Amino acid sequence: MQNDDPEYSIARCQILVRDAQRTLETAGKWSLSDGLLDVLNRLPQLSSRFRRKDQDVKDLRQKLTVEHQSRLDTQQREQALLEKVKLQEDTIKKQLATLRALNNDLQAAKVDAKRQYEKGFKTGQEAEKNRQNQPDSDFEDLIRRQLVRGTEKFNAYDFAGALTLLKEAQNSILSLPAARRPLFDNTKLRYQMAISGAYVNDLAASERSLSSFVQATFSNASSREEMLNLAHAQHLLAQVYIGQDNVQDAQNTCKHSNEIRWQYLQSTDNRRYQSAALSARLVELQGQRGASLLREAIRDPAVRDVLKEAYSKLKPLQAGGNPRNEPYILSEPATELLPIWTMKTQAKQPVNNPPKADGKDKAKPQAPPTVPQAKLTEWLNALDLRSHDNEFLDRSLEQAIRSSDVQKVSQILSSSPPIRPVAPALHIAALANDLQTATLLLAHDPSLAKISCTAKSAAGKNLHGVLPMHLAVGAQHAQMIRLLHSHGADLLAVSDKKHKNSAPPLWLVSERWLSWTGKDKVEEVVGILELLRGLGWRKGDRINREGWRMGDLVVRNLESRKALKRGLLGYLDSIPQ
């Protein structure tokens, strides 16, 4: 049996060689050489090396076997992954196909739904249109009868009865479908209600009634009749302002009414005579001269005397109205006086000197509220008001003005040595709408109304030549504007000796100030513009360095405030240059 073990083969060779050596030696023929003997002696060592090499071969074979198996395993895993990926690809393809089918179904459903909606919407629109256009003859006839009866009573000066009927008609009109309401003349209805309310209600309610109509009509009046109705309402509103001891607003309102009547009426029209008589009385109430000259516009001496006597009754009152709601009968020649001036029981005490009760004076009318401290601080921080001439306002005086501490301001101004109220002392008071402090500062130094300072713009740039009037106009402080104007503040100054800036009216339509104050209603801004008109501003005046007018600035600045822009442009179109 053959043995393949290398060690066995070597040992076997050694034995055979030795046997052969002994045999030869015995025969005496020849002997093995030393070299061969050396080889034979080294056979164990060679055997050992051979065994190691053989083991290395076995190890290498085993390693190769392991690596081969590993490659096989890797290939199997890769194949499994490829199969899995292919399966997922197939799944995704199926899902995409499903989604495409669903999307096609969805689009088809959308098209069908849109078609159905449009069909239903058109049907509904037509039905609603037919419903709205379908007149309710009986109900609309009732409204017409209410309007006719209300107008009859209005023309007969039965304003209480007219107001009742007109209110009923207005409520009935509002209950109609929107498409049917324009069939009725709402402008005329509002006019008759405003005038009737003025004749029936007390002063406060009369002011609300007339002011609401005037503000709503400013932007919309276009025809001759509408403009004259506006002038009539303003004529009555001026009387209400007189009763409330607000002569300045009365003058402004009367002035606008006069402009309309002078434009649309003949010089002999009785309504122009009414305006002349009212203007003359306002001049007298302000202690000025020229009343007689204004009355000269009334050409008939007899009419002039009657109107002079009638309008001489206008004066500040405690309260007023026609609480008896009696029909108002006009005298001859016809006057447009409110009933409060013709009643026998007129209140005799002026508003600014009310009667005493229990030995104590009743409270006088309060000054307008000042700006809250938090808001004032926010505005002042943003404006960063500074004097032009490197002068600094005393800190204690500034703090007293900021906090509206009139007593403290008075003490500081009268201290020794005296402390000068340099800019921006009056600026702060004007911004705060603090009339008492502003009056005190102006009494101390009237020139403060004309002293400018530097402020920061919304973009952080320096604005030079800023006057107290700029701040009063921007913040829409009406009484502060009057106070500053009475002390020589210029409404149209676009520069001082050293610096240039826009005129105060521009600040009224500044986006920054409208956002700060929140006073962005048409009637609020128009009210200030009316005040400025009464103080000398005209819509044709150029109010910045570029020569822009108010209308130009309204268009540029109020693009984001469409309603205000539209209302102001309408108002500007309605007033003369």
UniProtKB/TrEMBL annotation:
Pfam families: Ank (PF00023)
Per-repeat ranges for ANK: 464-496
SUPFAM superfamilies attached to this UniProt entry: Ankyrin repeat
Record bears the keyword Coiled coil: yes
Superkingdom as given in the UniProt entry: Eukaryota
Gene3D superfamilies (UniProt xref): Ankyrin repeat-containing domain
Protein name: Uncharacterized protein
Species for this entry: Zasmidium cellare ATCC 36951
